[in-house]
Amino acid sequence: MRILVVEDEPTLARQLADGLVAAGYAVDLADNGIDAHFMGDTEPVDAAILDLGLPGMDGITVLKKWRAAGRAMPVLILTARDTWHEKVAGIDAGADDYLAKPFHMEELLARLRALIRRAGGHASAELSCGPLKLDTRASRATVDGQALTLTSHEYRVLAYLMHHHDEVVSRTDLVEHIYAQDFDRDSNTVEVFIARLRKKLPPGMIETVRGLGYRLASPQ
Amino acid sequence: MNLASLRGSLRFRLLLTTLVWIAASIVVAGWGLGSLFRSHVEAQFNADLGVHLDQLTAHLVLDGQGRPTLSVPLSDPRFNRPFGGLYWQIDRLAGPAMPAIGGALRSRSLWDQVLAVPADAPLDGELHRHRIGGPQGIVLGAIERSVRIDEVSLRLIAAADERLMIEPVARFNGVLWLALGVLGLGLAFAAWLQVVVGLAPLRQLRRALGRVRNGDARQLEGSFPTELQPLADEFNSVLTQNAEVVERARTHAGNLAHALKTPLSVLVNAARGREDELARLVAGQVETAQKQVDYHLVRAQAAAAVRMPGVRTAVGPALEGLVHAMERIYAGRNLQLAIQSTPNDLAFRGEEQDLQEMVGNLLENACKWAATRVEISAAIDGDRLDIRIADDGPGIAAEQREAVIRRGARADERVPGTGLGLAIVDDLARLYGGRLTLAASSLGGLVARLNLPAAT
């Protein structure tokens, strides 16, 4: 899952990025409205955390432009401007949730999980596919109750496949959603992660759909 | 209207001064015209008597015994009608070897009466005027002269009833005062009309101000006469400036809060995941600072706006906007948020931001606690709004309700929130002269009732 964080205060941006990476997300950072709009418009991010008071272009305008261009990823507004007047304006501009500063990282993560889950049509914080279960709150996967030991990249690949289980996910999709923009991408590494995951999962759960990508499905 | 307020009335002052002028002018004009006419009639009366006396003198001859007699009778027929109003008389004055005879020759109109004229013996050619008693007790104006013919001294008198002079004057005065009275009434009506028409823009100004005060208008609307337009323009610019000052205050307060909260966020996150004394201190102090910032921000923004005239907010759209936001924010909870039919013209006498802040906090509470349903209703009761937000959650025990409204208290620490929400709502409501009350809802949970001033 790839998250766009738009925050112009560098220390807070770094803290947000650290917290999100620790929770298993890939993070793109933007510190002004122009970059934020461009990245949200062109990169396949799964969610955005958006400050409102930004240099270049204010957050509400950025959000309206995304929505006008048909970008539908969940957006959480994270701002000190938290009067209801501003919240209503933010929601009207197309935001999905609103969190006021100062905030607790745990609450931010919980809200973000809920947004991504809702966007994928999942009702519970725990995703399951046959014997495989993914607890998005604890960033933990289990098979028949047995915890899997996963590296952070393996977790990202598995989490993305779980959010889109029974769908074909292309290799490019996977690369774009597990790495941040400034990361040195190599689609071959995806094959490495898939191979390692296959060893840890019950056989046959990750199918290769020739020429299209991968599909996670419960074993027959 | 008592005397003091009459004195303070512009209309009364204008009307009073005009009426005093009109009355004074009419009295002076009436008196002046009356005396002019009177002196004219008097002069005419005396001139007529003079003519009669001259005729009498011209026709006077003495007969053989030295008795006066007239060669031709005087022309005016009233001399021949008994008590006809015009009289003449010739007295013979005492001379050498001749006794005086009063009324030696008299007009027929005197009948058997003799005019008694003061014996002042005018010199030859001199005219004397007298007011004397005449026949039947009437007063006569008389004129006399002395004539000497052939050593005989005679006194010639012409007299006329004074009523011949008084009656035309009285008739003239009657007509004159009637005409002046009608003129005065006309002028008074015109003055009243002028005051009413002239001061009508002031009433218009007052109505426009009333609309501003009621919140129906933000500016004085309409065009006023040249004398009032500058006043209205100045007033409008004061209103505009006031609104700008309030807007600036809001913006500054918002900027200050924004500037403070980002560093607070950095502090919270820096202390996160550490269990030492410093981390706990930072977390505690940041929470206190945040509460203070929130509390004073809302208060500062509202206090600036509460005394602004001409501010009104339609309730319906504000509620719909908030409900839409709640549905989005609490999309995961599958809540039913229902606005009961709200009259279209319902309006709050205050800033939109403040109404949103109050209702938003209450709605957020309701959404946090509700099991399935939140109901919002708004009604008007006289000049008060009654906004109710009810949920079907666990509610709050009656004895705890006052405490949770008090600043900072929270009934249950497990549900996230600053715990200041209800206190801020109550504070805002009180700034607007209203209040927040909590009660048991018919849905099973809590109902929060906001009593606020309505805009007409």
What secondary-structure arrangement, pairings included, does this model have?
The complex is a heterodimer of chains A (220) and B (456).
Chain A: E1 2-6, H1 10-22, E2 26-30, H2 33-42, E3 47-50, H3 59-68, E4 75-79, H4 84-92, E5 97-100, H5 105-119, E6 126-129, E7 132-135, E8 140-143, E9 146-147, H6 152-163, E10 168-169, H7 171-178, H8 187-200, E11 206-209, E12 213-216
Helix pairs in contact in A: 2-3, 6-8
Chain B: H1 3-7, H2 10-59, E1 60-62, E2 68-70, E3 86-92, E4 101-106, E5 128-133, E6 139-149, E7 152-161, H3 163-214, H4 229-271, H5 277-306, E8 313-314, H6 315-329, E9 336-339, E10 347-348, H7 352-369, E11 373-381, E12 384-391, H8 398-405, H9 421-431, E13 435-440, E14 446-453
* Main sheet makeup of chain A: 5 strands, parallel
Helix content of chain B: 40-55%
Which two chains form the greatest contact, residue counts included?
A: A-B, 32 and 37 residues
Query: How do the helices and strands follow one another from N- to C-terminus of chain B?
Result: HHEEEEEEEHHHEHEEHEEHHEE
Give a short account of the largest sheet of chain B. 5 strands, antiparallel
Total domain count of chain A? 2
CATH superfamily of the largest domain in chain A: Response regulator
* CATH architectural label of the largest domain in chain A: 3-Layer(aba) Sandwich
Content-based structural category of chain B: alpha+beta
Structural class of chain A: alpha/beta
Instruction: Determine the number of helices of chain A (DSSP H or I, runs of at least 4 residues).
Output: 8
What sequence of helices (H) and strands (E) makes up the elements of chain A? EHEHEHEHEHEEEEHEHHEE
Oligomer: heterodimer
> What portion of the residues of chain A fall into strands of 2 or more residues?
15-25%
User: What separation lies between the terminal Cα atoms of chain B?
Assistant: 28 Å
Terminal Cα span of chain A = 27 Å
Radius of gyration of chain A: 18 Å
- Annotation field: number of helices of chain B: 9
Strands of the widest sheet of chain B, in order across it, are 4-3-7-6-5
